[in-house]
Design goal:
- InterPro entries: AB_hydrolase_fold.
- This is Haloalkane dehalogenase.
- It comes from Pyxidicoccus fallax.
- The chain is mostly helical.
- It has a single domain, classed as Alpha/Beta hydrolase fold, catalytic domain (Rossmann fold).
- It has a 3-stranded parallel sheet, with helices on both faces.
- It is globular.
Length: about 170
């Protein structure tokens, strides 16, 4: 398993410069209140559309598909755990792993692309740091939000094809 290409979409694989978390991530660390919201009220599933460039991209059947695996209260620990994995202090348990990932990304010399949704309220601003970490990466900036696959699937597929070396000419 050697990685030969890299495509990143609105994420953060770098060690934080400062631990400035979003309101969403700060909320996830509030004892009891966040447990009730995430586990009993299925937060943030009912409001996922608000993280999008086009809120309608997560509605109807698509919104139901996001909610389906979390339809039972016992299945709702994962979204809260994921939110709490975002480091909010230097001693956070994920910082060491992020440091390893950061070093790996900065040293990656293979083909790389960044497909970024600039209207993502959580990670839209993280593009600058990822551009700096991967200066050779081709960058596709979009007006999408957090869940790019719902708004710009063609851009994602094109980036994957280019990195895999199977893009049609001119793509």
């Amino acid at each position: 398993g050697r990685v030969t290409g890299l495509v990143l979409l609105n994420t953060s694989v770098l060690t934080p410069r400062a631990f400035k978390t979003t309101a969403f991530h700060r909320f996830s660390h509030l004892p009891a209140v966040s447990d009730v919201a995430f586990r009993l009220l299925n937060f943030p599933v009912p409001v996922l559309g608000r993280t999008q460039g086009d809120a309608r991209s997560i509605s109807g059947d698509v919104a139901r598909a996001y909610a389906w695996p979390l339809r039972h209260v016992v299945d709702r620990a994962a979204p809260l755990a994921l939110a709490r994995m975002v480091p909010n202090r230097e001693g956070h348990p994920t910082v060491a792993e992020l440091a390893e990932g950061d070093a790996w990304v900065r040293g990656f010399e293979g083909p790389a692309e960044l497909v970024w949704g600039l209207r993502d309220p959580i990670l839209g601003r993280a593009l600058k740091r990822h551009r700096e970490a991967l200066p050779h990466a081709r960058v596709t900036e979009t007006q999408a939000g957090h869940f790019l696959q719902e708004e710009v699937p063609e851009d994602i597929a094109a980036a994957i094809r280019r990195v895999a070396g199977v893009a049609p000419e001119g793509a």
